[in-house]
Design a protein that fits this description.
Length: 480
């Protein structure tokens, strides 16, 4: 039998069906392209343009004068000046005081110059002016980045640190606004290009931002974590803790001394914390479940990237079952293998002050155009709860006792109410040099609470070197 040939109508329907499939395919590809374009514009464009490998930065700078960076009180921290021959040069009127916070924009970028590169290379001047400038071959003025940094407090912290290397970082616990970021040794951002070889010579750490990237042994400020862990493991018995300190403790041949071999006598947990008794906390550390302690520290931002859009380091903590009792004792008093940044300690004490909740830290209040009109604003937002409200209250009580009856007594009797923890961390086993720590916060009616972390390298005790720096900052802030 002969096969019936396909009718023209059936052939036409088949072709139409194929055409529809192709049409729908292209339609969905078009939608996918639009969706990616929107995603790129909203989520990825800033990161893409901020990339140091992106040549589009040069294209932007051909049409836009790089915008200013200013402090929260309007002080110019970075601006672009035009020389007589038309060359544009980045200028930093505050010089070294804001070096690491503001950064630089030659030989790469750092600090706010890097973080806010996208905003500084955009212009939101009136559209007709931008069009007119384009036709005239003139550049538009880039937007101004309004930072959270407080010029007066920054200067106070910078001067208070003096000739010592170290760092000071300050934040409002209830908002996350960072008001101060000081790191020493510092550099002159106005001469980075000419000083580059010296700044980057082997072994140099001048460009290293110690406030956010420093990795230090925490010393006794770690007793905040040890105390919290003891409370978590002994929620009913912690009030009954008692230890008779004779100035040292020896276990398996390892001796832990209290500062100056001071004998603290009979102490409870709060008194051990206030007096920063090494022997007592070494004793506590031996009783702790190490796996649980690891989980607590991980939950308090160890071993993870800190929640900030800025160059920062990852703090490290580890204590396993295979570690010796000596290592457990060292770890409990903030030595051992633990390292932490001043920023990390600032975030932890800020959460303690804010009922256990950490606010995401930020350094930019918003962006304005050349006429001073606000283009965008940042608002406080929660990162999450690091500890419960009850735990935060307990640690707050303990940190208050450091001021009223312990190693932070220089902060007692002020117009504000201060809380904190001092620390004196041995730099290495081969030297007697120590870094001085203080971290804490203060409050006063009519003011935002203020949290601070201070480290003074190769100095002495936290009470002698770090507490006075925090006091100067609190004094200026709460009396203006």
């Amino acid at each position: 039998m002969r096969k019936e040939s396909e009718s023209p109508e059936r052939k036409s329907k088949g072709k139409n069906k194929e055409f529809l499939v192709i049409m729908y395919l292209f339609f969905f590809l078009f939608l996918a392209l639009i969706a990616y374009f929107v995603y790129f514009q909203v989520f990825k464009s800033e990161a893409f343009i901020n990339s140091p490998y992106n040549s589009l930065q040069d294209l932007f700078s051909e049409h836009v004068i790089r915008g200013d960076i200013v402090s929260s009180d309007g002080q110019v921290l970075a601006t672009t000046k035009t020389t007589e021959d038309g060359t544009q040069v980045r200028s930093y009127p505050m010089g070294r005081k804001f070096a690491h916070a503001v950064g630089y924009a030659v030989n790469g970028k750092a600090g706010l110059e890097n973080q806010e590169n996208f905003s500084l290379l955009r212009s939101h001047e009136f559209i007709l002016k931008r069009i007119t400038d384009e036709f005239a071959g003139k550049k538009s003025q880039g937007d101004t980045v309004v930072s959270t940094l407080d010029a007066e407090l920054q200067k106070t912290a910078y001067d208070a640190l003096g000739s010592y290397d170290g760092a000071v970082i300050v934040m409002e616990p209830k908002t996350g606004r960072i008001l101060v970021m000081v790191s020493k040794p510092d550099f002159d951002p106005n001469s980075v290009k000419s000083d580059w070889d010296q700044l980057t010579t082997e072994g140099s750490t001048v460009l290293y931002n110690r406030a956010t990237q420093g990795k230090y042994a925490p010393g006794s400020v770690f007793k905040i974590f040890t105390s919290l862990e003891y409370y978590r493991q002994q929620p009913k018995e912690y009030k009954n803790y008692s230890y008779d300190c004779d100035g040292e403790i020896t276990v398996d041949g390892q001796t832990i001394h209290c500062a100056g071999n001071k004998q603290h006598g009979q102490e409870n947990l709060k008194e051990s914390f206030a007096k920063s008794c090494n022997a007592s906390f070494a004793n506590i550390s031996l009783s702790l479940d190490r796996n649980h302690l690891q989980k607590t520290c991980d939950g308090l931002l160890f071993n993870k990237k800190l929640p900030i859009a800025f160059e920062s380091s990852v703090s490290s903590f580890s204590l396993s079952k295979s570690d010796t009792k000596a290592m457990a004792m060292e770890t409990g008093i903030g030595q051992g293998k633990t390292t932490v940044s001043p920023l990390h300690m600032l975030l932890v004490v800020s959460a303690i002050d804010n009922k256990g909740v950490l606010m995401s830290p930020y350094l930019v209040d918003g962006v304005e155009n050349a006429d001073g009109n606000r283009v965008s604003s940042n608002a406080p937002k929660e990162y999450g709860a690091l500890l419960s409200e009850k735990e935060a209250h307990l640690l707050k009580v303990y940190m208050r006792s450091v001021v009223t009856e312990g190693t932070g007594s220089a902060l007692k009797g002020q117009s504000y109410k201060a809380y904190g923890k001092t620390g004196t961390a041995q730099v290495s086993d081969s030297t007697d040099e120590t870094n001085a720590w203080f971290t804490g916060f203060a409050s006063k009616e009519g003011y935002e609470d203020l949290a601070v972390a201070v480290i003074v390298e190769d100095s002495g005790t936290g009470s002698a070197y770090a507490v006075p720096i925090a006091k100067k900052i609190f004094d200026v802030y709460f009396n203006r």
